[in-house]
Amino acid sequence: QAPDSFPPLRNEAAVRVLRGRMKGIQGHCNSCYMDAALFSLFSCTSVLDSMLFKPFLLCDRNVQSILRDEIVNPLRKTGFVRASSVMHLREQLTEKGQCSSFTNAEKDPEEFLNLIMHQILGIEPLLKLQSGGQKEQDCYCYQIFMDKQEDLVVPDVQQVTRLPFFSQIPSCFIIQMPRFGKEYKMFSKIIPSLELDITDLLLDSPRECCVCGDIATLECS
Prior knowledge:
By secondary structure, the protein is mainly alpha-helical. The chain is 31% helix and 6% strand. The protein has 2 domains: 11-120, Cathepsin B, Chain A (Alpha-Beta Complex); 124-220, no CATH class. It is built from 6 helices and 6 strands; from the N terminus they run H-E-H-H-H-E-H-H-E-E-E-E. It is found in: Cytoplasm, Cytoskeleton, Spindle. This is Ubiquitin carboxyl-terminal hydrolase CYLD. Keywords: Cytoplasm, Hydrolase, Microtubule.
């Protein structure tokens, strides 16, 4: 455990601490969905550090301390988190979420985020989604569903995020890529985009013409 607070890793420090063998979050018993989500949310960014410290209205302090002291701080300090620490969190999620499969089954990252952010910590939704004048929907991440494209073999995040979807700038933007299961993988890998241009995705913002690439003056209904 690392009870002291450590800032997210940046630049050369991130390379020094996170690169090499026995680095990252150790997997065990179908924990990959949670390991990948926790690493993405906390290793190199502080945008969700309020989850670690802020006393939200519905906040479970035990879960918050496990997340902070047994997972995030060790990850930022040494670049490594033991599987037993993640299992401790999974056991608490099982108890709070009343779902026994959190300790042994492959789950959807969105289910994990909804449970820990909404039911356990009581965080306000990060995104407001709206499509075609329909009612806004609150959520914590945007899960991408897409049909198989034969000409798209190894995409980057930019290529799989081109759908108009939200109506205001969120405090942070969590994207769940097309998931990998035991039986089927849509892509062998997806390359992380270091920058993500979401101009075309914003409501009432100028969009590129799909033919010439210039700013569009008209938009088909």
